[in-house]
Amino acid sequence: MAQLYAGTSGFAYPAWKPTFYPAKLPANKFLEHYAQRLNAVEINYTFRRLPNAATLEAWVRATPAHFRFALKANQRITHIQRLKNVKEAVELFLRMIDPMRSARRLGPVLFQLPPNLKCDLALLADFLPLLPPDMRFTIEFRHPSWLIPEVYTALQKQNISLCVAESEKLEIPEVVTADFIYYRLRKEQYTPEERNAIAARSRELLDQGKDLYVFFKHEETPDGALYAEELVQSRPAV
Question: How many CB atoms lie within 10 A of CB 137?
Fold first, then answer.
């Protein structure tokens, strides 16, 4: 049965009190409370620094078995080396997040490319085989030159999802390239009509057997978390 995982990009926001987090909830209990209401979170922390095992193990302990963490790949892979000659960097990153994978809490790994990295099919062909087939990966392209059939075909062959990320500068088409779909919904606010449309489309894709990962933007207001909770409640429990 296909599953819907919904959450926000991050969870450690004191400004979400008291609407989402109770007013007196200490920061070290944020994730535990978050995981009682939502079933996934996108972690951007791993983009800036490699996580240590103790941090990952603490996150696992704070969440139930059905909860999933989507981790953003480290910047050395995407922004410093820009996918070139990254075999060692990829292996190191995957080794560092292995405690999450071993605990069966790991969702997709997100590779967010720099907006000035233009399409290079040879570069992509060298990079994609570095990604193990028993894990889930999604790539967020931020230059329009990547949005071509040759790229979609390359992703399909590796079961890697095209990240459908909202942006004021670039419209990503909803091209299904894997057995799951990964959305990054970046607006600060969504009208009830827009949220109903998101829920309806989610049901359609779930009925097609596609797992969904839907992450609303993290903000200084808890709106994204509340939108995600509404979406989670629109489908049967995991």
Answer: 22
Which pLDDT tens digits describe the chain residue by residue (238 residues)?
899 999 999 999 999 999 999 999 999 999 999 999 999 999 999 999 999 999 999 999 999 999 999 999 999 999 999 999 999 999 999 999 999 999 999 999 999 999 999 999 999 999 999 999 999 999 999 999 999 999 999 999 999 999 999 988 899 999 999 999 999 998 889 999 999 999 999 999 999 999 999 999 877 889 999 999 999 998 654 4
In 58-125, which ranges are E strands?
A: 68-72, 106-112
Q: pTM for this structure?
A: 0.95
Which amino acid type is present at position 213?
A: Y
With respect to residue 107, please indicate whether it lies within any of the assigned structural domains: yes
Peptide bond into 18 cis (omega under 30): yes
Q: Total domain count for the chain? A: 1
Q: Which two tokens stand for residue 41?
A: 């979170």
Inside any domain, residue 188: yes
- Kindly state whether residue 238 falls inside one of the protein's structural domains: no
Taking the C-alpha atoms of residue 219 and residue 187, their distance in angstroms, rounded to an integer, is 10
The residue range of the domain holding 18 is 4-232
- Residue 65's CATH number: 3.20.20.410
131 occurs within a structural domain: yes
Q: To 10 degrees, what angle do helices 223-232 and 192-207 make?
A: 40
